[in-house]
């Protein structure tokens, strides 16, 4: 039986892509890998992973992802990556994420997210929506 593709749109199998971060505890080496794994965690309503990868300066106390109607995630497009490599301490990833709630109209979020690497580990800091 073939393994399903990762929701992040990389074209790779989930276990070889975001699953190794979300389920197996590996650390993303780049800001883009963290961005993709966070998108995938949203598709799974995996609040613990999202909170764990959120910088402590900007992290909310909790995430309520299971409230309301179910969300169907439609896709992620990475538009721009600035820095955020294995040797960097800061990075930016601009993306477009699409989803639908219930049977409603598709919605979209366009954001340039900022990431910071602390002690060798990448964290989501914040982002500019509509950027």
UniProtKB/TrEMBL annotation:
It comes from the Bacteria. Pfam families: SEC-C (PF02810), YchJ_M-like (PF17775). Residues 30-127 form the YchJ-like middle NTF2-like domain. Belongs to the UPF0225 family. This is UPF0225 protein A9404_11285. It comes from Halothiobacillus diazotrophicus.
